[in-house]
Amino acid sequence: MGTPEFAVPSLQVLLEGTDPVVGVVTQPDQPSGRGMALHAPPVKVLAEAHHIPVFQPAKLRVPGVLEQLQSWQPDLIVVAAYGRILPTTILTLPPLGCINVHASLLPKYRGAGPIQWAIANGETETGITIMQVSAPMDAGDILLQKAVPIAATDTGGSLHDKLARLGAEALREAIELLKVGRLTPRQQHEAEVTHAPLIQKDDGRVDWHLAAAVIERRVRAFNPWPSAYTTLNGKLLKILAAQVEHSLRPSQATPGTIIEVTPVSVSVATGNGVLTLREVQLAGKKRLSVEEFLRGHHLQSGLVLGEDAA
């Protein structure tokens, strides 16, 4: 049971294993693009390429869903970013239960946005948890964990890809250990729980009163979606790459004020420190390095970003 690109490596590992994949459950096809044509989830594309039966219910608690899963007689259900909470009737269906590939070192970052919030909150390490699925979301017993460092250059996109690959490796190992009875569940410590809510578009709006280091992390965390963004003369401006500027003295200017423009950079005052923009995208235009952007747009010190509502 899985839907987006994150789940594809995990399904690939299962397809390469010795145990048959009897079926794949994924979300319904969704309209996207200018023509709003229906597009299949990445997991469906891979499953159909290997002639695996695919089931795409819009909801799980409706007639016919449980009967379809029962007809496949699964010994084990693997869940990876499926996007729905499983009812008890499904959790108790397979003899070996349901296991989940979660993109954090539980109990930290329970929820739908663990990858982005780990970067945004300044974590230096994250990882994959293979866990038993339980009724409370992400609260099941831990079966296996693998850690990975978060690089200072990692974006939400790059860390997503690392964890998708690591998740597949961890899943392969967990299934082999499960077969020989060497997976020992351990409870999560509730006192150590942190949460990672679903990312919303408004999470990308830059609050220039935050510290430069915090904004820089959010620029990376929300790349590629929803992107960190502000406004420039009333137009939406995405900030796709930035860095904390240590060569400039902290400015007393209003946060969001451009305090220096060079041929290759734009430096902005924040609540604490200076942020230098490196790559941007104006609404309706291509993403550009700041050097390229400045060739077509005249910016000067004193201009305040984010003064107009996006």
Would you mind describing this structure in some detail?
The protein is of the alpha+beta class and 310 residues long. It folds into two domains: 5-192, Formyl transferase, N-terminal domain (Rossmann fold, 3-Layer(aba) Sandwich); 201-296, Roll (Methionyl-tRNA Fmet Formyltransferase, Chain A, domain 2). It is built from eight helices and 14 strands. It has helices spanning 8-16, 42-49, 65-72, 88-91, 114-120, 156-179, 212-221, 290-296; strands at residues 24-25, 30-32, 37-39, 54-55, 77-79, 98-102, 125-132, 142-149, 228-232, 235-245, 258-262, 265-269, 274-282, 288-289. Strands 9, 10, 11, 12, 13 and 14 form a six-stranded antiparallel beta sheet that branches. A four-stranded mixed beta sheet has the order 5-6-7-8, covered by helices on one side. It has a two-stranded parallel sheet with strand order 1-4. Helix 1 runs parallel beside helix 6 and helix 5 (114-120) runs antiparallel to helix 7 (212-221).
